[in-house]
Amino acid sequence: MIQPPPYQLPLMASDLSEREGFDQEFLGQHVPLPSLDGIGTVLLPYTHFSVLMRTDKRLAAITGLGIDGGKLMDLDRSGIPWKLDPRLPENQQTGERVYAHNDIDRGHLVRRASAVWGDTRAEAAQAKEDTFHYTNAAPQAAKFNQGMELWLGLETYLLDNAADYRRRLVVFTGPVFSDSDPVYRDVQIPLRFFKIAAFIHNATLAATGYIVDQTPVLPDLTRPELQEGPPPLGPFRTFQVLIRDIAALTGLGLTQLTAADRMLIAAAQPAARPASTWRRLRSPEDLDLNFNLND
């Protein structure tokens, strides 16, 4: 007989009061969490990461995570329930209703495996549990595919091949909201997400930008017959993009990271039209880093 998971008392705001959140000095240089001006946001610190919530969308505007590659641990993920953050009203975050009885997954914005590190097993375990807050989730295609595998593997590849300063990496992730995104159960389903990786290479701040697209192969997501159920989401297609394009699409303040962009065309074509320079990735080896990984 299958036993139900053990009952857990609801979290109280005080349970998360000691979380320190994203460390702006993590890389040995000041790299703050980008801001979003003119829109209501709430900053929520967790273990090793922070979430800047857009209360109007009930989803994160951006998350910031520091990854210490030398302290990563492999901890079991089973038995951890998703939970609301008690520091935020329920009507300002998504909950189980968005993901129940459909093919939409709770996609981690801060990747669980990347947050699970620390000086102690207890620290790593706390970070693991913190990633299972709905504030760190976004509706994504449930079907696993090669494009999603590549998207998830970018952080590991950059840690192993590009980052020095004790193998440390900072990752900013979030949705790219658009008027064409479908609305489902009162929540806008982003069809694109961005990721920016920042690291130290040869004592200099370097950054690279990416967008993953889960737009379905459909002519119009606003058709009435498509509004009755969850939107059909397509397979993940991953692109390396100019960080300035991410800034233009999201409104986030990315000036420092744009200046550190290592995509070669960022310097070669400073006035390139957004999206015209996007580079489709099919493997990590397709990355344009504008430096020799053996330097």
Please describe what this structure looks like.
With about 300 residues, this protein is an alpha+beta fold. The chain has a single domain, classed as Extracellular Endonuclease, Chain A. About 20% of the residues lie in helices and about 25% in strands. It has seven helices and twelve strands. The protein has an eight-stranded antiparallel beta sheet with strand order 1-2-3-6-9-10-11-12, sandwiched between helices. The protein has a two-stranded antiparallel ribbon with strand order 4-5.
Mean pLDDT: 85
Q: Figure out the total of helices.
A: 7
Order of helices and strands: EEEHEHHEHEEEEEEHHHE
Helix content: 10-25%
In short:
The chain is of the alpha+beta class and 295 residues long. Helices cover 18% and strands 24% of the residues. It has helices at residues 96-99, 112-115, 121-130, 146-161, 243-250, 255-259, 264-268; strands at residues 41-45, 49-54, 59-68, 104-108, 137-141, 168-176, 183-184, 187-188, 192-201, 204-213, 237-241, 279-281.
Keywords:
disordered N terminus, 7 helices, two-stranded antiparallel ribbon, Extracellular Endonuclease, Chain A, alpha+beta, 295 residues, eight-stranded antiparallel beta sheet
Question: Could you give the topology of this structure?
Answer:
Blueprint: E1 41-45, E2 49-54, E3 59-68, H1 96-99, E4 104-108, H2 112-115, H3 121-130, E5 137-141, H4 146-161, E6 168-176, E7 183-184, E8 187-188, E9 192-201, E10 204-213, E11 237-241, H5 243-250, H6 255-259, H7 264-268, E12 279-281
Antiparallel strand pairs: 1-2, 2-3, 3-6, 4-5, 6-9, 7-8, 9-10, 10-11, 11-12
